Amino acid sequence: MSVKNASLATLREDLKVGFGLAAKNIISFVLAMVGVLIVAGLLLAVIVICMIAVILIAAGGTPGIIQLFITLSIQWNASAGVIVIGTALLVVLPVLLPFFVAGGAIFGMGREVIESNGTTVEGVFVWYKSKFVPLALGGIIAFLIEIGPPALLSLVLASTSAGVVVDGPLVVLSVFSAVWWLLTSGMLSMLFPAIIDGHSVIEALRVSIRLATKYVDRVLSTWLALVIMAALLASPLLLLSLPFGPFFHPLGAGSYAVLFGIVFVFLLVPAASITLNRVYLILSGEDHARREDDTPGIDIVGGV
Q1: Which positions ≥6 away from 80 have C-beta within 8 Å?
Q2: Can you tell me the distance from the alpha carbon of 247 to that of 238, in angstroms, rounded to the nearest whole number?
Q3: Domain layout of the chain by residue ranges
Q4: Neighbour-count burial of 110, counting CB atoms closer than 10 A to its CB (0-12 exposed, 13-18 middle, 19+ buried)
Q5: Cα–Cα distances in Å, from 40 out to 33, 57, 95, 131?
Q6: What pLDDT does 216 receive?
Q7: What pLDDT, in 10s, does the model give residues 196-211?
Q8: What's the rounded Cα separation, in Å, for the pair 173 and 178?
């Protein structure tokens, strides 16, 4: 069997290498994550201040904004919904930009780890600066692809049911949104590794889709395994948070939320970045590339 095809042993090895290297380099990842989140937070503050100033000026102050939303709520229809969604995207996307880049920079660290078995805290800031625009654009494209169709479907369903989606339509929307997100996020899981590899945003998008369709079993099985692990990690928090559930415990939910956040941010995310970079390098064929004797090729830690 080709090293590029999926199997249980291959998936287990990918995850073993990813989590093993993430744990080995956990100090570097923790410091890098803290640092990059601080930078993202500061940049977010600047963006929010600028956005608030622009919105207040354009709408004629706070009364103008309030009047706009009152008008849209009274005269709700498809066109008004489009305006609301469009406005929301204009607000949400700039807010998310620093975190798109932060996530992409972590993939840069993952690339360093999978190639050299180690990384440095400074590395994340180098990736953050050098790949800021491509990672930001890549994050925007991925966000629109993954969220756009469910948002449009919710708009259509709301316009046919007095602005409220309940019962059958809600089930349809929920199922469609979940399936769409899983498939599209899996198809785009090679996007950041391709950008880190030096591809332009559009070319990285093509590469991600091509790899995901050509090696659908390998790419989607890896992505689904990571999603399932995150879901299992979050499931106790959900059980402890349900007000009428048998395990409802507010204090326990709060304590577990802190634990979940630490494990998710400082272990699962780095492990995912390493694992997806490893899969990308294997599927893109770079692990088989051999250069001249005096020029070393790329070596993947953990083998293929």
Answers
A1: 72
A2: 9
A3: 8-287
A4: buried
A5: 10, 26, 10, 14
A6: 92
A7: 999 999 999 999 999 9
A8: 9
